[in-house]
Amino acid sequence: xxxxxxxxxxxxxxxxxxxxxxxxxxxxxxxxxxxxxxxxxxxxxxxxxxxxxxxxxxxxxxxxxxxxxxxxxxxxxxxxxxxxxxxxxxxxxxxxxxxxxxxxxxxxxxxx
Length: 112
Fold this sequence. Notes:
The chain has a domain at about 40-80. It has helices at about 1-10, 20-30, 40-60, 70-80, 90-100. Helix content is about 55%, strand content about 0%.
């Protein structure tokens, strides 16, 4: 259902404007169903599909969605906890910076 709604939103999203009061809370609820202790791929796929659908709706109906933006923004911040590209350990960044020292230069310093 979410993927179908995503396709509709991408093609004729402006036609969804009268139904946003029902659609956005439904998508937002499903988007936040992730559980950090029981994070399975199916939950991640549902959350990603809801996020992509909301993205398409926001692009097609920016004025109609305006009242939902603060709530959606807070939901997006909550989902950052599950982002696999986010580094939770600052020490890992420090170790990466130390590893760049040994590469040297492509040019010999003796040439002039």
